[in-house]
Design brief:
Elements: E1 7-12, H1 16-26, E2 33-39, E3 54-55, H2 58-62, E4 69-72, H3 77-89, E5 93-96, H4 99-116, E6 120-121, H5 124-127, H6 132-139, E7 145-151, H7 154-166, H8 170-179, H9 188-191, H10 194-208, E8 218-219, H11 227-235, E9 238-248, E10 254-264, E11 276-283, E12 287-294, H12 298-312, H13 321-324, E13 336-343, E14 354-361, E15 367-374, H14 375-380, E16 389-399, H15 404-414
Parallel strand pairs: 1-2, 1-4, 2-3, 4-5, 5-6, 8-10
Antiparallel strand pairs: 7-9, 7-11, 9-10, 11-12, 13-15, 13-16, 14-15
Helix pairs in contact: 1-12, 3-4, 4-10, 7-8
The structure holds NADPH dihydro-nicotinamide-adenine-dinucleotide phosphate (NDP) and the ligand N[C@@H](CC=O)C(=O)O.
Length: about 425
C-alpha cells in the first residue's frame, strides 16, 4: 500500500476557514503538503498571501493533474457541490467543510465516492475541531451505540451564553458571533437551526447508517426563545441549549431531532459554553463518553481540515460502516416528547393536541405550559414554530410508550381544562 503520499493541494475559499488553513499549513511543515493554488470569488479583495497564489478560474485547480487534493471551504453550497463532484470525477481526493452542501447532496456524494474510489473527508463540517465522524466510523463500529446528543452549532451556543450569562441582547451577541467568524455568511442558517440539522443529518449516517434529508428531522433554532424562558430555566436550575439528539428506541428504530432543550447542570452539555461544541455518546458497556472542543472559528476549524488532509497521506476513506456493513437503522416518529411551551396568546396553542398537561401558568403576561405531545403532532404542524411561541424540550424528553387516552382526559381535568 502507498504510504505518506506527497500532497499537492488546490484550495477553494480564502475566508475564515481557508485563510486559517493557509496559516496552519505554514506551521505544519512535517505534513509535506504543498498548497499550489487558491481559487476565490472576488479578485479585488486584499489577501494576506502572495498574489500569484490566487485565481478565480476553478478549472486551473480542477484540471491541474499535479493537484491531487482539493480542499473546498467556500460559502456557496451549489458551487461547492459542483467543485467537489468535479474534483472526485477528475481523480482527486477531497476535503470539504461545507455542511449544507453535504447535507443536501449526500446520496450523490456517496455514489461518487463509490464510483471513483476517491476519498471525501469532511470532519470539520460536523463539530469543527471535535473528531466526531472518525470516532463514529472507527470506534463505535458496532451495534452498541444507544444514543448521541450534542451541541453542534457554535454560533447559537455562543449567542445563548452571551445573552444569558453576559447580559448582551440578541443582536449584539449575533454581531459578535459574526465578527469572530463563527456565524455562517447567512446567519439565519445558524439561528433558525438549519446548520445544526444539516450537520445532524450526516452524523446520523455515520452513527446509524441513516441516509435522510433535513425535512425528515424535527428541528428548530433559538429564534423564539424568550427572556421569560430563561427565567423559568433559572428557577429550575437548568440551562437552555440547542441540542441535537438521536436515540435508539425499543422498537429498534431511531428517533432524531434538533431542538432547544432544558439541560440540567449535571449534564455534560451544561458545561459547553460560547462557541464550543460537545457530544455525549451513550453506548453499551462504556456508558457515557463526552467529547468537547471548539465548534467554530478559523484555526479550530482549520485544524480539522488539516487532520483530514493528513489522513489522505495514508489513503484514509470513510467506509460508512453502519450503512454498508451493518443493517442500517430507520428513523421513527413513533414517540412522545415532554415539552415546555411559552406563548402570549393561548389561542395560538392547540392544547387539545397534548396527551396530557403537567404544568400550567396563565397569570403572567407570558404564559406557559408543560406537557406531553406526540412527536408526529410537531412533525406535521408548525404552530410551535410561529412568532411568540417558544417550544423547549424538557431535560428528559423522550417517552416511548404511554397509556394515552385515559391519562389525557384525567390530566386535563386536573389542570382545570377540558378537551
Ligand atoms: N466559520 C466557521 O467557523 C466554519 C465554517 N464552516 C464552513 O466552511 C465554509 C467556509 O466558511 P467561512 O470560511 O466561514 O466562509 P467565509 O465567508 O469567511 O469565506 C468564504 C470563501 O469562499 C469563497 N467563495 C465563495 N464562492 C466561491 C466560488 N464559487 N469559488 C471560489 N471561492 C468562492 C469566498 O471568496 P472571496 O474571498 O473572494 O469572497 C471566500 O473566500 C462554509 O461552508 C462554512 O459553512 C465549517 C465549520 C466552521
Ligand atoms: N456557523 C457554524 C460554523 C461551524 O460549523 C457554527 O456556528 O457552528
Amino acid at each position: 500500500m502507498e504510504t505518506h503520499k506527497q500532497l499537492v493541494i488546490g484550495l477553494f475559499g480564502f475566508g475564515v476557514v481557508g485563510e486559517g488553513l493557509y496559516k496552519v499549513l505554514a506551521q505544519t511543515p512535517s505534513l509535506n503538503a504543498r498548497l499550489k493554488k487558491v481559487c476565490i470569488k472576488n479578485p479585488g479583495k486584499k489577501r494576506e498571501a502572495p498574489a500569484e497564489l490566487f485565481t478565480t478560474d476553478k478549472n486551473e485547480l480542477l484540471n491541474d493533474e499535479e493537484i491531487n487534493v482539493i480542499v473546498e471551504v467556500i460559502d456557496d453550497a451549489v458551487a461547492a457541490f459542483d467543485i467537489v463532484s468535479t474534483a472526485l470525477k477528475n481523480n482527486k481526493d477531497v476535503v470539504s467543510a461545507s455542511k449544507k452542501m453535504i447535507a443536501e447532496n449526500l446520496p450523490a456524494l456517496l455514489e461518487l465516492q463509490q464510483q471513483t474510489g476517491k476519498s471525501l473527508l469532511y470532519e470539520s463540517a460536523a463539530c469543527a475541531s471535535i473528531p466526531v465522524i472518525r470516532n463514529l466510523e472507527e470506534y463505535y463500529d458496532n451495534d452498541l451505540l444507544h444514543s448521541i446528543k450534542a451541541i453542534v452549532n457554535g454560533s447559537t451556543n455562543f449567542i445563548l451564553t452571551k445573552i444569558f450569562e453576559d447580559g448582551l441582547d440578541f443582536k449584539q451577541a449575533l454581531t459578535l458571533a459574526q465578527q469572530l467568524g463563527f456565524a455562517e455568511s447567512n446567519p439565519t442558517l445558524d439561528v433558525e437551526g438549519y446548520d445544526a440539522v444539516n450537520k445532524w443529518s450526516f452524523l446520523l449516517t455515520h452513527a446509524y447508517g441513516i441516509v435522510t434529508t433535513t425535512d425528515k428531522i424535527l428541528f428548530n433554532g433559538i429564534q423564539n426563545i424568550h427572556a421569560s424562558d430563561a427565567q423559568v430555566a433559572k428557577e429550575k436550575k437548568q440551562e437552555i441549549k440547542l441540542v441535537a439528539q438521536a436515540k435508539k428506541l425499543n422498537n429498534g428504530k431511531v428517533a432524531a431531532f434538533v431542538l432547544p432543550q432544558f439541560v440540567k447542570q449535571t449534564d455534560h452539555l451544561a458545561f459547553v459554553k460560547n462557541e464550543y461544541n460537545g457530544v455525549v455518546i451513550e453506548s453499551g458497556f462504556a456508558d457515557k463518553q463526552f467529547f468537547y472542543g471548539k465548534g467554530a472559528g478559523s484555526l479550530p476549524t482549520a485544524s480539522a481540515v488539516l487532520s483530514d488532509i493528513s489522513a489522505l497521506r495514508y489513503q484514509y476513506k470513510y467506509e460508512y460502516k453502519k450503512l454498508y456493513h451493518h443493517q442500517p437503522h430507520e428513523l421513527s416518529t413513533d414517540i412522545y416528547l415532554r415539552v415546555y411551551v411559552s406563548f402570549n396568546d393561548i389561542n395560538s396553542i392547540p392544547k387539545d393536541k397534548f396527551e396530557w398537561i403537567e404544568e400550567w401558568h396563565s397569570q403572567e403576561e407570558r404564559k406557559y405550559l408543560s406537557g406531553v405531545i406526540a412527536f408526529s403532532e410537531l412533525k406535521n404542524n408548525d404552530w410551535w414554530k410561529q412568532d411568540n411561541v417558544s417550544l423547549i424540550l424538557s431535560a428528559e424528553p423522550i417517552i416511548e410508550e404511554i397509556e394515552t387516552r385515559n391519562l389525557k382526559k384525567k390530566s386535563l381535568e386536573l389542570a382545570g381544562l377540558s378537551l
